[in-house]
Design brief:
The structure holds two protein chains of two kinds. Chain A is of the alpha+beta class. Chain A is about 40% helix and about 20% strand. Chain A has a single domain (about 1-145), classed as Sufe protein. Chain: A. In chain A, a hairpin with a 4-residue loop joins strand 1 and strand 2. In chain B, a hairpin with a 2-residue loop joins strand 1 (about 35) and strand 2. In chain B, helix 3 runs antiparallel to helix 11 and helix 13 (about 360-370) crosses helix 15. The chains are: A alpha+beta, B alpha/beta. The complex binds pyridoxal-5'-phosphate.
Chain lengths: ~150, ~425
């Protein structure tokens, strides 16, 4: 049960049940759709970029608790961040998720730490990173829907 | 000789005469079921994805490779003869299992998927013209959709779809209307892997035959659970996979009526499927070898034969009766949990329970149950059109085999309550 509690932390369940920044974004200038073919989950990320700063960000889509909470927390964290900061955050986040579960988790900023339990569940790493990969695609303005595969 | 081709261990006599299954005894035959996962006894409820193997099947491969393995249909030496005999004996076992008229009607494939592709690219290539129609149902597995889409794209033909109702049953009136002058083939799943529906295939075949249209039945899920008689069904093609029938992966069966197979062009070219080859002219082999190019999956076929022996010794009638009890018990218990919804509530169902828990994504259900030792499937089950029909991206699916118990159903129910607790 404790590993499950580590995975499904209060913050994650809260963001799953009440996702923040949910829905299409008025005046979005970047957008991409992500897809996890394994479970059929889809997410769309909307962005307003000014210079190299994310002015506004939202997401829409149906997914599991981990992917929904990850998207929700991501949008909350990234408002006002520069693209370089986004890159760094994702690097840290990814390193934490794929790190050795027997070692202490690599440090990550702020609330992203609530996903440290995902390390124990390798099958779920893709759920946690779907929105981030989709964000990268939106920043690159990829036209093709991206996939976790 | 006999000891070489029929495998050593067999079902205990305790199983044979009694009316009910001795499931405790059966479980002893499946070494994998004895383990714990995450510290809990394994409750394997992912049988629709693939089934576990009895010792007799495992032994049959060990015996082949340690005692008499060689290539088939080509050696004069003893081992080749023995391997060939065992391989052809396996074909006869399949013939008997499906009650086919002749073993020449049994073609070994890689699995259901290859069987369907074979029919699409031989019979389909031969008979489908621009504007013709292929008719399938809304509840097909991707493997009974995509090969027909590919054929339709090649030929400028049209894929038509028989709709289903909210219970997950074929709408027979609609089916009747969709059978047209242009329909060249009907492809229908016998037992749906996503919904558990058992389709009225016999009736559907009769309806198609009245218009002279051949029918392919996807029996991937049906053969482990219900007795199948291809002559009684009068189907033109029947396909299944060994791995869902307690046999190995990489082996499957295409049954085809001899009259049809005989007129079909070959699927792949190569060794074994020819009688003679010169650079001017090649003469193709007789059935069934014409459709088995190259060295086949010898061990797979022999082990599939062992799996069929195993299942037949228990008896598919008994298996079906027992599994119906399991399914009814599970269905009733699920219905009592608030917030649980079943997807697929056909009157005639077998072995599959697709469900949703309000406010919890199937992926999360799968993860939490896994920590309880319970293996289920979460996802679209390679049947995305079915998911779309029911307006869900995915479902959780428990699927049963004869080695599952009422206690395991209880564990599943307790697991579902745990899921609800975590998400409360
Ligand atoms: C109804 C049905 N058809 C076809 C298949 C494909 O079988 P295979 O992957 O063994 O070729 C499956 C397997 O999931 C199935 O359930």
């Amino acid at each position: 049960m404790s590993e499950l509690r580590d995975l499904y932390q209060e913050v994650i369940l809260d963001h799953y049940k009440r996702p923040r920044n949910f829905g299409p974004l008025e005046g979005a200038d970047h957008k991409a759709e992500g897809h996890n073919p394994l479970c059929g989950d889809r997410v769309t990320i909307y962005l307003v970029i000014e210079g190299d700063v994310i002015r506004n960000i939202s997401f829409q889509g149906a997914g599991c608790a981990i992917s929904t909470a990850s998207a929700s927390l991501m949008t909350e964290m990234l408002k006002g961040k520069t693209l370089a900061e986004v890159e760094m955050l994702f690097g840290e986040f990814h390193a934490m998720l794929t790190g050795d579960p027997s070692q202490p988790a690599d440090p990550v900023q702020g609330k992203l730490a609530v996903f440290s339990g995902v390390r124990e569940f390798p099958a779920r790493v893709k759920c946690a990173t779907l929105s981030w990969h989709t964000l990268q695609a939106a920043l690159k303005e990829q036209k093709e829907p991206i996939s976790t595969e | 000789m006999k000891s070489l081709v029929t495998t050593s261990s067999s079902v205990s006599p305790a199983l044979l005469p009694s009316a009910d299954l001795d499931v405790a005894r059966i479980r002893e035959d499946f070494p994998i079921l004895k383990q714990k996962v995450h510290g809990k006894p394994l409750v394997y409820l992912d049988n629709a994805a693939t089934s576990q193997k009895p010792q007799a099947v495992i032994d049959s491969e060990v015996e082949l490779y340690s005692k008499y393995f060689s290539n088939v249909h080509r050696g004069v030496h003893l081992l080749s003869q023995r391997s060939t005999d065992a391989y052809e004996k396996a074909r006869e076992k399949v013939q008997n299992f499906l009650n086919a008229r002749s073993s020449a009607e049994i073609i070994f494939t890689r699995g259901t998927t290859e069987g369907i592709n074979l029919v699409a690219q031989t019979y389909g290539q031969q008979h489908v013209q621009p504007g013709d129609e292929i008719l399938i149902s809304e509840m097909e597995h991707h493997s009974n959709i995509v090969p027909w889409q590919m054929l339709c794209a090649q030929k400028g033909a049209i894929l038509k779809v028989i709709p289903i109702n909210d219970e997950g049953e074929i709408l027979l009136d609609e089916y009747e209307k969709l059978l047209s002058e242009r329909t060249r083939l009907v492809g229908i799943v016998h037992l749906s892997n996503a919904l558990g529906t058992v389709n009225p295939v016999q009736q559907m075949i009769e309806m198609a035959h009245q218009r002279g249209i051949p029918v392919l039945v996807d029996g991937a899920q049906a053969v482990p659970h219900i007795p199948v008689d291809v002559q009684a069904l009068d189907c033109d093609f029947y396909v299944f996979s060994g791995h869902k029938l307690f046999g190995p992966t990489g082996i499957g069966v295409l049954y085809g009526k001899k009259e049809l197979l005989e007129t079909m062009p070959p699927y792949q070219g190569g060794g074994d499927m020819i009688l003679s080859v010169s650079f001017k002219k090649t003469e193709y082999n007789v059935l069934p070898f014409r459709f088995e190019a190259g060295t086949p999956n010898i061990a797979g076929a022999i082990a599939l034969g062992a799996a069929i022996d195993y299942v037949q010794e228990i008896g598919l009638d008994k298996i079906a009766t027992y599994e119906d009890k399991l399914l009814a018990y599970a269905t009733e218990a699920m219905a009592e949990i608030p917030g649980v919804r079943l997807i697929g509530t056909a009157r005639n169902k077998a072995s599959v329970l697709s469900f949703l828990i309000e406010g919890v994504h199937p992926h999360d259900i799968g993860t939490i149950l896994d920590r309880e030792g319970i293996a289920i499937r979460a996802g679209h089950h390679c049947a995305q059109p079915v998911m779309e029909r029911f307006g869900v991206p995915a479902t959780a699916r428990a699927s049963f085999a004869f080695y599952n118990t009422l206690e395991e159903v209880d564990a599943l129910i307790a697991g579902i309550r745990k899921v609800q607790e975590v998400f409360s």
